Amino acid sequence: MSWLVTGGAGYIGAHVVRALVDGGERVAVYDDLSTGSAERVPGGVPLVVGSVLDGAALEDAFRDHAVTGVVHIAAKKQVGESVERPLHYYRENVTGLQTLLEAMTSAGVDRLVFSSSAAVYGMPDVDLVTEDTPCLPMSPYGETKLIGEWLIGAAARAHGLRAASLRYFNVAGAAAPELSDSGVFNLIPMVFERLAAGEAPRVFGDDYATPDGTCVRDYIHVRDIASAHLAAARRLGDAPEGTSLVLNIGRGEGSSVREMVDRILKVADRQDLAPQVTERRPGDPARVVASADRAREELGWSARHGLDDMIDSAWQGWCHRHG
Ligand code: WQD
Question: Ligand 1 in contact with 259 (CB < 6 A)?
Answer without folding.
Answer: no
